């Protein structure tokens, strides 16, 4: 065993947690007080870390301490390791059945493919506990890179993600969900046949924030036929169901995943609008996990059943 490997073998959890402390505190003295240890002992922990990885991880100056670029990378890796250890401890406390932590968004939770996949897994006798959480894509991808969840199911606007978030992520398309323009049940545009994209621009819109994934797809569709893009009078950053409620009570237009209107449409809240010359690209539903997680069998089973469910629903990822 070489010296570098020997130094790594000597590391303990307190070494890994030190990087988190540096990120949240501005001096070694403050960290030493929190950990109830001396500054010399803390400095030794820093040296142990840097010797083990043969890299400078912490900047020291008169203004305090901060992580170097290498330190930031080390922190991301350490968070994954610490989260994995915490998760293992929870699993062992409640028994030997593994727990699969799934992150997703509200839209996918209402897609038929999601409950169908779970129904098929349970029918096959799956012996796994599932913990499902929902939040915006950026928070879910961050939770994944921090090791707080095992996979994320949903759309990912990679252009808006920090480049570091994509490190060692494995992602595959599950399928595509069409986007639909909606209006209220008595909107004047419903009587127009045929309906053209230019006519849609005569009306006011409620859209997701500028740069969001679905809004980009809508705007690209208008640009592709040399039209200006819709200019919203209302921006809604919450889930698409909030847009449905707004559209149902106004004469605004909006663009949402078809799975959302399929649910809302059963109550007759809104109607679909289809312009004959407007082709909006379908949103890509992705299965994202850490590369190192792909050997986890419950994760592979979830992916297999989701892929099959999306295929049965006709959401061809290659379309």
From TrEMBL:
Alphabetical list of PROSITE patterns matching this protein: HTH_LYSR
Residue ranges occupied by any HTH lysR-type domain in the UniProt entry: 11-68
Record carries keyword Lipoprotein: no
Protein's UniProt keywords contain DNA-binding: yes
Entry GO MF terms: DNA-binding transcription factor activity; transcription cis-regulatory region binding
Keywords, comma-separated and alphabetical: DNA-binding, Transcription, Transcription regulation
Family: Belongs to the LysR transcriptional regulatory family.
PANTHER family: HTH-TYPE TRANSCRIPTIONAL REGULATOR, HTH-TYPE TRANSCRIPTIONAL REGULATOR ABGR
Protein name: Galactose-binding protein regulator
The organism of origin for this protein: Martelella mediterranea DSM 17316
Gene: gbpR_4
């Amino acid at each position: 065993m070489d010296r570098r490997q020997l130094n790594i073998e000597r590391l303990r959890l307190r070494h890994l947690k030190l990087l988190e402390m540096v990120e949240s505190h501005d001096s070694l003295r403050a960290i030493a007080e929190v950990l109830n240890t001396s500054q010399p002992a803390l400095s030794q922990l820093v040296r142990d870390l840097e010797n083990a990885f043969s890299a400078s991880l912490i900047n020291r100056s008169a203004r305090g301490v901060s992580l170097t670029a290498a330190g930031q990378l080390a922190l991301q890796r350490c968070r994954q390791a610490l989260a994995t250890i915490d998760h293992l401890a929870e699993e062992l406390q409640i028994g030997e059945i593994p727990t699969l932590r799934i992150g997703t968004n509200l839209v996918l939770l209402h897609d038929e493919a999601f409950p169908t996949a779970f129904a098929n897994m349970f029918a096959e006798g799956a012996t796994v506990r599932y913990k499902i959480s929902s939040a915006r894509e950026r928070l879910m991808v961050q939770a994944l890179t921090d090791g707080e969840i095992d996979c994320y199911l949903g759309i990912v606007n990679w252009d808006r993600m920090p480049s570091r978030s994509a490190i060692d992520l494995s992602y595959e398309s599950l399928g595509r969900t069409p986007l639909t323009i909606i209006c209220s049940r008595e909107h004047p545009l419903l009587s127009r046949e045929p309906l053209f994209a230019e006519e849609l621009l005569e009306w006011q819109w409620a859209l997701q924030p500028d740069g969001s994934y679905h809004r980009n797809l809508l705007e690209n569709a208008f640009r592709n036929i040399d039209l200006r893009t819709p200019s919203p009078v209302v921006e809604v950053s919450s889930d698409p169901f909030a847009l449905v409620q707004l559209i149902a009570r106004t004469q605004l237009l909006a663009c949402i995943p078809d799975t959302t209107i399929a649910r809302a449409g059963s109550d007759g809240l809104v109607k679909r609008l289809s312009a004959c010359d407007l082709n909006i690209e379908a949103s890509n539903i992705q299965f994202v996990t850490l590369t190192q997680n792909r050997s986890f069998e419950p994760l592979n089973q979830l992916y297999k059943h989701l892929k099959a469910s999306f295929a049965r629903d006709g959401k061809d990822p290659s379309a």
